[in-house]
Amino acid sequence: KLFYADWQRCPADKTMSSILYVDHDLACRCLVTFTIWQLGYWNDVVASSQRALQAFQRRQYDLVFIDLAMPEMDGFALARAIRELEREKRRAPALLCGMSVIDDPVLRQHCRDVGMEEFIGRPCSCDDLRYIIRLGEALHTQRPGKGHYFENTGC
To answer: pTM higher than 0.70, yes or no?
Structure first.
């Protein structure tokens, strides 16, 4: 369970370089962002794929959580666009994680086909987010001069 007191214990200075969370649903944005904060990380949050691309053009993210069922441009198209931006700007690839209430092998394979490395079914747990963030942190620390790891303080 999530508790405000746990969130207060999270060290604000111990963050992975950059996390972006993209979701059109306000309740999901609030819940997932709060959970990410409880885990001791800060993240940027946007409500559409277009805003995500704008943010991604301005800043390199190490981890991107993507709602697959967004209106206008779905999560699959966003993942393709992010991968194209990374190639154009010669950036290190971000860890992309798709999120959906539908969890089946075909959907997971489609995520991989468009360049996402991970998938989380919804509703997601604190442990699901912790796993993906730690994976992102491990990949991030493989880059020279980047990242750091710390023990979890929440959930």
So the answer is: yes
Amino acid at 153: T
pLDDT score of 151 more than 50: no
Going by C-alpha positions, the residue among 50, 38, 44 that lies closest to residue 94 is 44
In angstroms, the CA 5 to CA 132 distance is: 23
Residue in the structure block whose two tokens are 């794929």: 49
- Residues 6 or more apart in contact with residue 65 via CB below 8 angstroms: 19, 20, 21, 22, 23, 32, 97, 99, 120, 132
Q: Is 51 exposed, middle or buried (0-12, 13-18, 19+ CB in 10 A)?
A: middle
Question: What would the pLDDT profile of 73-110 be if each residue is shown by its tens digit?
Answer: 999 999 999 999 999 999 999 999 999 999 899 999 99
The number of C-alpha atoms within 13 Å of 152 and in the hemisphere containing its C-beta is 14
Query: Which residues, 6 or more positions from 2, have their beta carbon under 8 angstroms from its beta carbon?
Result: 34, 35, 38, 126, 154, 155
